Automatic annotation (TrEMBL):
It comes from Rhodobacter aestuarii. GO terms for molecular function: nicotinate-nucleotide diphosphorylase (carboxylating) activity. SUPFAM superfamilies: Nicotinate/Quinolinate PRTase C-terminal domain-like, Nicotinate/Quinolinate PRTase N-terminal domain-like. One of its GO terms (cellular component) is cytoplasm. InterPro entries: Aldolase_TIM, ModD, NadC/ModD, Nicotinate_pribotase-like_C, Quinolinate_PRibosylTase_N_sf, Quinolinate_PRibosylTrfase_C, Quinolinate_PRibosylTrfase_N. The keyword Glycosyltransferase applies. This is Putative pyrophosphorylase ModD.
Amino acid sequence: MFVIDDTALMALIREDVPAGDLTTRSLGIATDAGEITMRARAPMTVACSEEAVRIFQLLGAEAWIACPSGKRVEEGEMLLFGRGQAEALHAGWKVAQTLMEWASGVASCASDILSAAQAVNPAISVACTRKSVPGTRALSLKAITAAGATIHRAGLSDTVLLFAEHRVFGGEDALATQIALLRQSCPERRVVVEVSSRDEALAAAKAGAEVLQLEKFPPAEVAATVAALGPDWPGKVAAAGGINAKNAADYAATGAHVLVTSAPYTAPPRDVKVHIGMA
């Protein structure tokens, strides 16, 4: 499980509450005792409820998780409960709500893609890319892994992935030469090669690629490439580009081992209902 530290959470709080809650303070109710609940307005896969609870705790309130990240909930189910002074509850309200709504949107989308794919092929994986909104990577990766998806690569230091943009620097025989160099230089890593055609995929497989990432292949072409590689090829096939919950089942039926997607990062937030009252 990803842990988002207090420094990052305090930055979120300071962004929204740079000098306290002016309205609550001006009404003279800052120290009044109150309670807050957050509930799902619709079915969702929950994400970042732990961080939401911690936000209230950092502001001096008590708070408890009702639903941990990764849990699928129905409409009306309680996500968290908090108790404390009105100023603390109001200061944490929108920060915690917005974080959970956004993260649960990411998680719910990833869960929908995974469910659609595994209904056709229970062994298939869904891997989410590093193309999250800048500054949100740790929270995004927490959300997608809570939903059961995997991390395609957390960053450029994480995996070996040979793009055409690398091969332009390698000359006419770059594909085979660079695959050989990567296998020698990084023997503990799988060499993943992104390809844009069936012929290129077959050439990369012959040159020693261990994973072929088929970029923007339609499902029929993914299936044809898998068939051309044959059942004895020991590597893995990843289908990437444009994959979402609507077409995941079609891609899962092709024989690909992994579906690579960025779709969860642009998913709509899931609504969280908030109630604040006197304690």
